[in-house]
Amino acid sequence: MKWGTKYGPEYVNRLYDMVRRHLSGDFHFVCLTDDARGIRAEVQCHPIPDININLAPGEPDRAWKKLTTFEADLYGLRGTALFLDLDVVIVGSLDDFFTQPGQFLIIKDYPRFWRANGRRIVGNSSVYRFELGAHADVLAHFRAHSREMREKYRNEQEFLSHFLNAQGKLSYWPAAWCPSFKYHCIPAWPGNFWKEPLPPRDARIVIFHGECNPPDALAGRSNRRFRHIEPALWVARAWGN
């Protein structure tokens, strides 16, 4: 899913290339977007469905857009869908993401100890798998109770996790598959001043969240004043550069 100007078409094209190299067999690669210019021909592009909620003036809908993947009929698409954020970096096989048991699978969100205990079931929606059309009640409930849900939950992944957990449908990927670049790749101080940040051995998809994105990691840039990182040169290799 791509909207706005933060991520250009090169992110979609790189992601397709990484999936093609790490997933066996045939697949359809779909991008929901407000601008398909520059996206490679192998990618099937569709407009992002309207979330259909009444927003206050100036209130952004970006925190909820992913819920539109749960449309009862999403452009006639059928089958098992693996959602991937544009800024992930794939470093291992994706085959097991399609065979892992579970109705709905998502990353177990990384520890944030300042949050209330009741929030710790939240998934990180950088990578999730579901059957297309199987969870239309997620979107229908949100649309019917959007104001209440937006007041109760910070974003789509928090709402989604609690809704499906209450139905007994929420499962998590094995923890080793989707490590956080921030938490699991950067060496502990003071090694971060001379050691390259590297993905853990069993990593499949490295997740970038917070202040450091893949181009920052590749260049050794950190937006945190006291968090030095060396260039993560493996990002270029994973991109095929």
Mean pLDDT across every amino acid position: 91
- Catalogue the unreliable spans: 113-118
Q: Give a quick account of the main beta sheet: strands, pairing sense, barrel closure.
A: 4 strands, mixed
Distance between the termini: 23 Å
Q: How are the strands ordered across the major sheet?
A: 3-6-5-7
* Number of helical regions: 7
Order of helices and strands: HEEEEEEHHHEHEHH
Number of strands: 8
Q: What's the overall geometry?
A: globular
Helix content: 10-25%
What is the rounded Rg?
A: 18 Å
Task: Estimate nothing, just give the exact number of structural domains.
Answer: 2
Structural class: alpha/beta
Strand content: 5-15%
Describe it for me?
Helix content is 24%, strand content 13%. The protein has seven helices and eight strands. The chain has helices at residues 9-22, 136-144, 146-152, 156-166, 181-185, 214-219, 234-239; strands at 30-32, 44-46, 80-84, 89-90, 104-108, 123-131, 170-172, 205-206. The relative contact order is 0.15.
Q: What is the fold's blueprint, element by element?
A:
Blueprint (H helix, E strand, L loop, with lengths): L8 H14 L7 E3 L11 E3 L33 E5 L4 E2 L13 E5 L14 E9 L4 H9 L1 H7 L3 H11 L3 E3 L8 H5 L19 E2 L7 H6 L14 H6 L2
Parallel strand pairs: 1-2, 5-7
Antiparallel strand pairs: 3-6, 4-8, 5-6
